[in-house]
Every structure is written in structure tokens, then in C-alpha cells.
Write a structure and sequence with these properties.
By secondary structure, this protein is α/β, with parallel strands linked by helices. The chain contains eight helices and seven strands; from the N terminus they run βαβαβαβαβαβααβα. The N terminus is likely disordered. The chain binds nicotinamide-adenine-dinucleotide (NAD). Nicotinamide-adenine-dinucleotide (NAD) binds next to helix 1 and strand 5.
């Protein structure tokens, strides 16, 4: 068969491309709960770009969902990780050191706040609720990045997931907005610390997507409705949109980029209000 007769490369999700953007790279994905997770959108795309992946799951209930997904794309490393548990953080990175010896990227796609803190007034947030949200949704990025650093011997790339509620007050997002603001600041400080080792750190600020975590934020339906009306691209975003931007940020295509927040929100964040023409058409 001559080159011109070769079948086209299969780049569909789940089919690794040997010449893909992430061929030969190894990455840890933290934050898959099920097939709707943003982390799963990133994992599928990273795999189709040729990456080899390891996964973690939070607790037995999620293991039943995460393990089959990981196995469906040939991942052999699937381990428990609650990010509040330092021993579990140490354990997963020891496994990666033993099995792979190095790591090229880390995807942090984890957030949590108590349900009562995602309703009503931010002023009523308890000290304990604040600490929980900030520990799981922000400090965990620092802890995981620190554990990943010694394995990123040839440089690396770290991604964390954030939301526009970090910079604009958003109904019901409350303490999670505060946690995302701290997460975005952490991304900048980590980027400065690790830049000399060519380890790049990025945030992806995704538009609303119906996931398990998002079901804890009241008013999600309204957020999804306003997007097509106000976002320049006139639509909601998908986990595949997030996966594509992640592939760029994890690859050499973004070699000159670090510390930034990259919006995958159909342009929503650049608008001040709904365009009157859109309003006429949409209503
Ligand atoms: P998801 O429920 O699929 O993922 C959230 C993940 O966080 C789950 O896998 C859960 O197990 C994990 N997690 C929570 N507490 C943990 C802990 N203590 N230890 C380990 N893991 C823990 O929901 P998602 O929407 O895919 O969320 C992923 C990330 O994307 C979050 O940071 C979220 O804030 C962010 N994000 C989501 C949206 C959206 O609309 N869905 C928009 C912007 C940003």
C-alpha cells in the first residue's frame, strides 16, 4: 500500500492516533465521576491524541463507574484518591513513579462545596463549609502539583477547571466562586514556581455543562438557557469543546503559554448583556 492509499488516521474518541498531539505522553486524570464529567471529555481527547492515561476515583461508588471507562481506553492504572487524604495522594504518585517513572501532565477536575453553601446568601457560609470548599476545590491543586513536580522531569503541563463565577458574582455559586478565585490565583503562583522547570500551569474556565457536580448548583437550567441567547457563538459548550482545548494546553502547541485562564464558554465572558437582535430572535 502506498502512502496515498493509507487509510485516514482514526481520530475518533477512543482511538489513539500514533502521530497525535500527545503521542508518547503520560498523564494523570483526577476528577472523572462518570461519562458526563469534564475530565472524561479531556481523557477521551487526550487518549485519541495518543496519550497513555492513569485515573483516580473518589470512593467505591464511583469506582464502579470510573474503572470501566478507564479500561475502555486501555488504562491500566486506576486508583482511589480522596484529595483531602495526604496518604492517598502519596500512594497514587508512588504508583506512577514505579510504573511510569515520569509524568507529562496532570488534569485537576475536582470541586466540592456543601449543598447548603450553594444556596441563599454567601454571607451565611460557615467556617467549616468555607474550609471544606477551599480545601477540596483549591488546595488540592497545590498538593497534587507538588506531588507531580518530581515526576515531571522533562517539563510538563497541569490543567485545572474553573468557572466565570470566580470573577463575577453568580447566583448560588457563592463559596464556590470564592474557591475558584483562589484556584485561579493558585494557577498563577504555581506557574511562576514551576516555569523554570518548564512545567506549565493553566486554567480552563468552562461554560455550564450538566454534570454530577453541576447538579449541586441551583439555577443550572437558567444558566444553560441564557448561553445560547447571550454567548457570541449562540450555543452551550460540550465536554468535547473542553477536551479539545485541553489537548492544546497539554501539548507542545501551547509551549509558550502558562499561568492563564482559557475560556471555553462560547464567548459568554466577553459580553456585557444580551445583544438586542438575539433577544428579538431568542424570545
Ligand atoms: P463531576 O461531578 O463529573 O466531577 C467532579 C469531580 O470532583 C468528581 O469526579 C468527584 O469525585 C471529584 N471530587 C469531589 N470531591 C473530591 C474529593 N474530596 N477527592 C477527590 N475527588 C473529589 O463534575 P464536573 O462538572 O465535570 O466538574 C469537574 C470540574 O469542572 C470542577 O472543578 C468544576 O467546578 C469544574 N467546572 C464545571 C462546570 C460545569 O458546568 N459542569 C463549569 C466550569 C467548571
Amino acid at each position: 500500500m502506498t502512502a496515498s492509499e493509507s487509510p485516514p488516521a482514526d481520530t475518533s474518541p477512543g482511538s489513539p492516533a500514533s502521530g497525535g498531539l500527545l503521542a508518547g505522553r503520560r498523564g494523570l486524570i483526577v476528577g472523572v465521576a462518570n461519562k458526563r464529567s469534564l475530565a472524561w471529555g479531556i481523557a477521551r481527547r487526550a487518549h485519541s491524541e495518543g496519550a497513555e492515561l492513569a485515573f483516580t476515583f473518589q470512593g467505591d461508588a464511583l469506582e464502579r463507574r470510573v474503572r470501566p471507562l478507564a479500561e475502555s481506553i486501555g488504562s491500566a492504572i486506576v486508583e482511589p484518591l480522596d484529595v483531602t487524604d495526604d496518604a492517598q495522594i502519596e500512594a497514587i504518585f508512588s504508583t506512577l513513579a514505579e510504573r511510569w517513572g515520569r509524568l507529562d501532565f496532570l488534569v485537576h477536575s475536582v470541586a466540592f462545596a456543601n449543598r447548603e453553601d450553594l444556596l441563599g446568601r454567601t454571607v451565611d457560609t460557615s467556617r467549616a463549609g468555607f474550609a471544606t470548599a477551599l480545601d477540596i476545590s483549591c488546595y488540592s491543586l497545590i498538593a497534587l502539583t507538588r506531588a507531580a513536580e518530581p515526576l515531571m522531569t522533562d517539563g510538563g503541563s497541569v490543567i485545572a477547571m474553573t468557572y466565570y463565577g470566580a470573577t463575577k458574582a453568580t447566583p448560588n455559586y457563592n463559596v464556590m466562586g470564592i474557591a475558584k478565585a483562589a484556584l485561579e490565583a493558585s494557577i498563577r503562583y504555581l506557574a511562576v514556581d514551576l516555569g523554570p522547570k518548564n512545567i506549565r500551569v493553566h486554567g480552563i474556565s468552562a461554560g455550564p455543562v450538566r454534570t454530577l457536580a453541576a447538579s449541586g448548583v441551583s439555577g443550572m437550567r437558567g444558566m444553560l438557557k441564557v448561553m445560547p441567547e447571550r454567548a457570541p457563538l449562540g450555543r452551550n459548550i460540550t465536554v468535547d469543546d473542553v477536551g479539545a482545548t485541553a489537548a492544546y494546553l497539554l501539548s507542545d502547541l501551547s509551549a509558550g503559554t502558562t499561568g492563564g485562564i482559557h475560556f471555553v464558554d462560547a464567548g459568554f465572558n466577553i459580553t456585557a448583556m444580551r445583544h438586542p437582535d438575539r433577544a428579538a430572535k431568542g424570545s
